[in-house]
Design brief:
The complex is a heterodimer of chains A (81) and B (454).
Chain A lengths: L1 H15 L21 H15 L3 H4 L9 H10 L3
Helix pairs in contact in A: 1-2
Chain B lengths: L5 H11 L4 E4 L4 E3 L6 E2 L6 E5 L3 H11 L5 E4 L6 H10 L4 E4 L15 E4 L4 E2 L12 E5 L9 E5 H4 L1 H6 L8 E3 L7 H12 L3 E3 L7 H10 L4 E4 L1 H8 L11 E4 L6 H10 L4 E8 L3 E6 L6 E2 L10 E6 L2 E6 L5 E2 L12 E10 L2 E7 L4 E3 L2 E3 L1 H9 L4 E11 L3 E10 L5 H15 L8 E4 L16
Parallel strand pairs in B: 1-12, 4-5, 4-6, 5-9, 6-7, 11-12, 11-13, 13-14, 14-15, 26-27
Antiparallel strand pairs in B: 1-2, 3-8, 9-10, 10-20, 15-16, 17-22, 18-19, 19-21, 21-22, 23-24, 25-26
The chains are: A mainly alpha (81), B alpha/beta (454).
């Protein structure tokens, strides 16, 4: 899961902010400081839904706003159907 | 409340405690007394104000209101096209700015005189007020590519602040996360200052986490922002240090998810979502933690505003409404109702704002016209037909999506790359479709339009 998410993250990053070097996807990477803006995250989630077949943000009962890359990946793992 | 100027209102606060803090930026601060620094000696004319320093801007507004016939504020980061369009709509006699005149070539005009903030007269006494009814021209957030100027008075623009201000209430510390030249920004500005509170202005160029950190250190208690910005605030680690009493959401519909998430993160705060626009003023607000608005709102008069649903269209009659568009007719019908252009869905005892009648999409508070995006897309050589719609997502509320029918024999992978590059050159970040789907046929509904949001 983590590998797949990292792969899609970097792809989306390259497309959305081509002029910036992508960040190292460490556990404690602060998402808001990764260089992707909220539109970028919205795109990432749509792209992940296409590849993984699910969107945990619409499956989860409670709204969740992950702060770090680890929280983001864990949220996908937790809500995998 | 006629003929009361911003100075009159603030002088009452300064009279009780003139060293009371009014404004705080990361580098400067100003007391209420210091807001009266400038005096307008020029003619009672129409004045455009463009300042990068917020304290300068506030002092200029205090000097101008009541002394000139009209004020229009534009942000110092305003785009060239928006600025030219505003200058085109009104003949301003003066532009007051703290920018180098050379920074904005748009200011060079034979009819308009540029005045530097540093050359304004200093006020030596507080008893030389003039009491002209100044009009405030407030640009809309550009539902079309051209911002319109809505005519307000201080009384209408600051209506909810005037109604709620209670000098005896506890000191509040507000933070500004909106562009102050826009309607939502004015609401925060007036709520803070007319109420005698402090207004904290974070550095808009700093990261959101740094801005939130500054707000936490400055003891901010009140924040008003769009749901999209609130989602980002919750993603900031520094938001754990905020100690909020009041959370306000506006500019786009607040969904249940963000309301619940805010409740969990700020259990002590009152959470209010507001329906307001530059044209209607504040139409309604509710603090019960539920998305949408109570149907009971359509049966009452809040004293400030009334709400009407006709068919699925929303109408507002408000004391805070604008008087009209500059150079055009009235905003409201004979009975004072303003057609908001928003459509609603009634669900039991509640109604929800679904989107714009015109199909305009609200992307995190920025307006996008699907037809405009579609026309750009149709200019691309690969595209046979396309439809633009909003796709729900948890981060921006809605994302611009496009279904595209390609011309015969075009390779999808090549076309996708070419189309993305093509759109990047022609559309701003929030206008650009971020979800592109290739389809064999474009689906339309009975009215010939594609569904607005999916």
């Amino acid at each position: 899961m983590r590998e797949k998410i990292s792969e899609v993250f970097l792809e989306v990053f390259k497309r959305e902010v081509p002029e910036t070097d992508p960040p190292a996807l460490s556990d404690d990477l602060i998402l808001l400081e990764s260089g992707l803006d909220s539109l970028g995250f919205a795109v990432l989630i749509v792209e992940l839904e296409n590849r993984l077949g699910f969107d945990p943000f619409s499956l989860a009962n409670e709204a969740f706003y992950p702060r770090t890359f680890r929280e983001f990946v864990e949220f996908y793992e937790k809500h995998k159907p | 409340m006629k003929n009361i100027s911003l100075k009159d209102l603030l002088i009452k606060i300064a009279a009780t405690d003139q060293d009371r803090l009014a404004l705080r930026t990361p580098t400067h601060q100003a007391t209420y007394r210091e807001l009266f620094e400038f005096k307008w000696e020029g003619p009672e004319d129409e004045v455009l104000v463009c300042c990068k320093d917020f304290i300068n801007l506030s002092k200029v507004l205090v000097a101008l209101d009541g002394s000139v016939s009209s004020i229009c504020v534009v942000g110092s980061e305003v785009s060239e096209s928006d600025l030219l369009s505003i200058l085109d709509q009104k003949n301003f006699s003066h532009i007051i700015t703290d920018l180098d005149f050379s920074e904005r070539s748009e200011f060079n005009s034979e009819e308009t005189r540029c005045v530097s903030v540093s050359s304004l007269q200093h006020r030596d006494s507080l008893d030389d007020w003039s009491i002209k009814n100044t009009l405030w021209f407030v640009p809309t957030s550009g539902t079309t590519s051209v911002p319109k100027l809505v005519i307000h008075s201080l009384d209408s623009l600051a209506k909810s602040a005037l109604k709620t201000s209670n000098p005896a209430s506890a000191r509040e510390v507000w933070a500004l996360f909106y562009d102050v030249s826009r309607y939502a920004g004015y609401q925060v500005f007036f709520r803070a200052l007319i109420g005698g509170h402090a207004l904290v202005i974070p550095d808009f160029n700093a990261s959101l986490n740094e801005r939130i950190s500054f707000c936490a250190r400055a003891g901010v208690t009140h924040i008003s922002a769009t749901p999209t910005l609130w989602r980002k605030i919750l993603m900031c680690s520094e938001s754990d240090h905020l100690n909020l009493n009041q959370i306000t959401l506006g500019g786009e519909a607040a969904d249940q998810g963000i309301l619940n998430a805010l409740r969990r993160s700020f259990p002590r705060a009152r959470i209010t979502h507001v329906y307001a626009s530059t044209e209607t003023g504040v139409g309604m607000s509710v603090s019960d933690g539920l998305a949408g608005f109570p149907m009971a709102f359509t049966e009452r008069d809040s004293g400030l505003s009334q709400v009407l649903i006709r068919g699925n269209r929303l109408f507002i009659r408000s004391l805070g409404a604008g008087q009209g568009y500059s150079g055009a007719g009235a905003l409201s019908d004979d009975e004072g109702w303003v057609a908001t252009g928003d459509i609603v869905r009634v669900e039991g005892e509640r109604f929800h704002i679904l989107g714009r009648e015109s199909g305009v999409l609200n992307i995190g508070g920025d307006k996008v016209i699907p037809e405009y995006v579609r026309n750009i897309l149709l200019e691309n050589k690969n595209v046979c037909d396309a439809v633009i719609y909003g796709k729900q997502n948890p981060f921006t509320g809605i994302l611009v999506a496009a279904d595209i029918k390609l011309n015969f024999g075009i390779d999808q992978a090549v076309a996708k790359h070419e189309i993305e590059e093509f759109l990047k050159e022609r559309l701003s970040s929030h206008q650009r479709p971020r979800v592109i789907r290739f389809v064999d046929e474009i689906e339309v509904n009975l009215t010939g339009k594609a569904a607005q949001t999916r």
